[in-house]
Amino acid sequence: MQFILKLAAVAVVTALSLSPVLAQETRSFTDDTGRVVDIPVAPQRIVSLHDSVLTIPLLELGVLPVGSHGRTTEEGKPFIRSSNVLTGIDFDNSTIHFVGNLPADVEAVAALEPDLILTTPWQTAGLEQLETIAPTLVLDSGKRDAFGMHSVLADVTGTQDRLATLDARYQSQIAQIKRLIDTSSISVSIMQGVNGQFAVWHTYGTLGIVLRDAGFVFPDRVNAIPEGTNELLSAEALPELDADFVFVTYRTDALETPADAMKYLEEVVPGFCDFLFACRANQMIVMPREEASSASYYGLGVMAYTVISQISGRRFEHKPD
């Protein structure tokens, strides 16, 4: 009996010594809360606890997490927000496991035996619980620029070369816009109707980044909004938001259509098109929000192509001063 117990003990020790989590080389990493965490140098089993902020960038960097936070449809089917249109990858066509929404299911996370957990301040699953499962980093997109999360995730996962390739492609896309369009002579604006007000960002997602990087001119009222923030403006602000071209978005993930985008603007100013130059001149461009707002290099490319196809070589009117 004692011999059997000794064999069992040896087997357990051997199994533990072969565990990929315990055998991995580690390094110290300071997360966005100031915590210093020992993480694997080359993590193999990552669980991501924010779909659009963490999982999408990971997928664009070529990293497939073993588990991800997600949303559910009215029928209860889980999905990674925007991932189908941005990466082509979702729960139903990959090996990524759904680990819940808000809060994430800690037991489901533990069952995947991760060697690294990535979370955000938005996620309400308890940090103390997560830390007992695996090294856990808290990454705050609010403390970084729009694509700062790609940079830190590339560092964490060792995919800096992939990020450099994505960035080189984007820089070429911006250079192409500048070659084809005299951007410095064209004003642009982005808005959406939200609960009877105009929602306006200093830089709205991937669309705003492309327009600013390409050198288009924004209204003074938009430039006055602090970088990284947005404001809700009343109907009286409409003239200050007008431009040669105005961009408006709608949520395809919520099955909205361009008609919904127009309806929300009508709720702010009935007959708004009569008061908006870009609309009267047929220079208001309505597009899906997922590609326009997500922090995605694919989204940047789609927006760059959209700008070229909508504006380059087109006869258009400039808004009167």
Automatic annotation (TrEMBL):
Record's keyword annotation contains Lipid metabolism: no
Protein name per the record: Putative siderophore-binding lipoprotein YfiY
Family of the protein in this entry: Belongs to the bacterial solute-binding protein 8 family.
Domain Fe/B12 periplasmic-binding intervals: 45-315
GO cellular component: outer membrane-bounded periplasmic space
Signal peptide segment: 1-23
Keywords associated with the record: Ion transport, Iron, Iron transport, Lipoprotein, Signal, Transport
Pfam families in UniProt: Peripla_BP_2
The keyword Ion transport appears for this protein: yes
Subcellular location, record wording: Cell envelope
An individual GO BP term: iron coordination entity transport
Gene behind this protein: yfiY_1
Predominant location: other
